[in-house]
Each structure stands twice: as C-alpha cells, then as structure tokens.
Amino acid sequence: MRITEIEAIEVRLPEVKDKASSAQDACIIKIHTDEGIVGIGEVDSSAHVAKAVVEAPLSSSIASGLGHLLMGMNPLDIEVINEKLYQRSFYYGRRAVVVHTIGGIDMALWDIAGKYYRQPIYQLLGGAFHKKFRAYASDLFGHDGKVTCEKAKRWVDQGFTAVKFGWKPMGESEEIDLDLVEGARLGVGDENDILIDAGCCWDTKTAKIRAKQFEQYRILWLEEPLEQDNLDGYKELSQVSNIPIAAGEGEAGIHAWRDLIERGGIDIAQIDLARNGFTTARKVADMAESRGLRVVNHFYSTPINLAAGLHWLATRKSAFVFEYCVEETPIRTQLTRQEIKAIDGFVTVPEEPGLGVELNEEIVSRYRVG
Question: Are 85 and 11 within 8 A, CB to CB?
Fold first, then answer.
C-alpha cells in the first residue's frame, strides 16, 4: 500500500470570535492510498498555517513542506514517517505548528492502519483499560459568577457530573476570580465536581495565593494557572498547592513534554491528540505515568479529535476523566457523520475500524476555505 495524495483542508466559520475556542476553524488532514483507504486527521493549531506546512514546497533538505515527503510511502510505516517528517523539517520546526501538523498526519495514518487491519485504533495501541469514561462538560466562564452558575446548572441538568470553566475574565482581579469559582461551585452543587482552567493568567506568586483560596471550593484540578513557558513557576506552585496542577494542552512533541514533566513538576498531563498524534502521545504518556503523573486528554475542537482522544485515553491505565467540549458550533458537532454524544455524563469509545468516524462532506464543503 502506498500514499498517493495528501490533502490539508481548512474549514472556518463565517465569523470567528476573539475567544479561547478551537471549535471555530480546523485543518483537516486526508491521506489517500492506492488501495482506496482514506485516513483522516485533525490539526488543532492555526489552521491556515498548518495547511501551509503541508503544502509548502521543498526549501532545503531540512526545511521541507510535509506533503510531498509522504508521497509513495507505505502509510503503515508510521514510526518511520514520523521520524522522516521531523528530521526533514527541523530547520523551521521541532516545536509548535510543525509538530502539530505532524500530529495530525500521524492521526490520519493510524486511521488508515485501523481500517486496513479492520480494528479500532485503541486495539492497535495495545488494548483498552477503559471503554467508557465519565465526561466533564468543558466550557468558557460566563462574564461573572452568576452567569457561570447558570451555565453550570445547564450542563448538570444534561447529565454531567463534572464541569470545567476556563479563560476570561479570570485573572482580571481577585474579586472576579473568586466570584467565578464560587459561581461554578454553586451551579454544579456539592455532589458534583468542578475543574478550573485559569487560562495562563497569573504570575507565580498570584497562582500560589489563588490555589490556597480555591481550596474551599474543592476543585478537581487547577489547570494552566501560569504562562506555558514558566516551568520554574509550575515547579514552585506544584510543590505547595494542595490542589492538583494540570497543564500541557499547548505542548507538542516529546522534547517540549519532557521539559514540562521534568522541570514543571505538574500532577496531571493534558495531551491533545490533534497537536501530538497517537505516536507521540503514547510516548509522552509512558514518560508521564512512569513518573507518577496521571494523563488525560485535551479536547476543544472537532469530532475527529474527540474520537482520537477516546481511542488513546482508553489505552492509558491512569486515565480517570474525559474532556468533552460543549461548544455548540457546526465544526464542533457536525464535521463527522457520526456524533459521539455524552449520555448521562459518560462517553463510550468507538468500536468501528480506525477512528470510527467519517467526514460529513457536506459540512466540509460548506465551511471550506479556498
């Protein structure tokens, strides 16, 4: 079997708002083979830039666009392909969007492998410790605690027993920060869980104060309280916080992850499959779990990434909860023909070959750019 074509498809809503949501655009990867098997993947990054990374021509032997490097290769040679893409792009890559794009390609290759072997991806990864996860509704904060409370009640009424809120306006003041978290706790009730994503908004000293102040609200974890490159701050915070510290959604590739795990001292590693792919995510999780960390998925984009996260997290022994983005956009909910719904607060791993989802070509065409 050989790769005959790779497509990088940018989809985008007519209006993209200035907010922390990846459910407004996406770069979809489609890899075609001479046996008629087509694999799909997703890059959660700047969709326009990721598309360029695939389509860019050869600049030099170490600064190549990724697409033409794949042509003629056996898509089942996944490890070999990953290494080739990394080595042939390291002059402008090694981190961020180039590694994100390699991850999206890797996802599509695993989709091909699953279809070729007629197995769900989790089976090819070694089997499932879990087939079903408690999902937490992942949403953005309301503009104050009252609105956040009402949003939380909505998701609990829909069956979720855990809700996460994040990003603005957290970080604007102590009063606002406490109001938001109190609203979230009141909304979910005492019997359910809340998770707080600070959106990288504080300096180290402030984060230490907030972690102490938030203890009364019994939050399941405090996510990305510091800028992603403040590794020394993460280490200092993790050593004093009684609340588990979670981070990693912005990390891509084994080297960036090693820095966060070893220097940052976090408690929970949040791995996004649409920024790392299955091959790297498996290696990162092995490294994290060997050091006593728990691993979870990060997901705030399309159903492709939702399916990938389920297959990967199913294979991780330390997994205990699943991020379920509740953003209500066509790109989030309609991009695949199959909709993976949270039922009574739980999501189930697909059993069909590969990812177990197929593109809804009508929706792709409707929101396709170019």
Answer: no
- Residue 362 is assigned to a structural domain of this protein: no
Query: Would you state the torsion angle of the CA atoms of residues 184, 190, 192, 198, taken in this order, to the nearest 10 degrees?
Result: 30
In angstroms and rounded to an integer, the radius of gyration of the C-alpha atoms of the chain is: 20
Cα–Cα distance measured from residue 324 to residue 364, given in angstroms and rounded to the nearest whole number: 22
CATH (domain of 150): 3.20.20.120
**Considering 64, 87, 119, which residue would you say is the last residue of a domain?**
119
Would you say 85 and 102 are in contact if contact means Cβ atoms under 8 Å apart? yes
Are residues 174 and 42 part of one domain? no
Q: Which long-range contacts (CB under 8 A, 24 or more apart) does 203-208 make?
A: 203/233, 204/230, 204/232, 204/233, 204/236, 204/237, 207/233, 207/237, 208/236, 208/237, 208/240, 208/241
Which residues share a beta bridge with 166? Answer: 140, 197
The alpha helices in 158-299, defined as continuous H runs, are: 174-188, 204-213, 231-240, 254-259, 273-290
Model confidence, pTM? 0.97
289: left (phi over 0), alpha (psi -120 to 50) or beta: alpha
- The amino acid occupying position 168 is K
Q: How many angstroms separate the CA atoms of 330 and 339, rounded?
A: 12
The tokens describing 188, both together, are 């979910």
**From CA 76, how far away is CA 326, in angstroms rounded?**
34
The kind and range of the H/E element at 139 are: strand 132-140
| Whether 269 contacts 293, CB under 8 Å | yes
Residues 157-194 have pLDDT tens digits of: 999 999 999 999 999 999 999 999 999 999 999 999 99
* Tens-digit pLDDT profile for residues 20-50: 899 999 999 999 999 999 999 999 999 999 9
Q: Please check whether residues 138 and 252 belong to one and the same domain.
A: yes
Closest to 259 measured CA to CA, from 229, 226, 236, 290:
229
Q: Could you tell me if residue 283 is inside a domain?
A: yes
Using DSSP bridges, classify how beta strands 3-12 and 346-348 pair: parallel, antiparallel or unpaired: unpaired
Three-class SS of residue 121?
helix
The domain in which residue 251 lies consists of: 124-356
Q: Are residues 100 and 236 in the same domain?
A: no
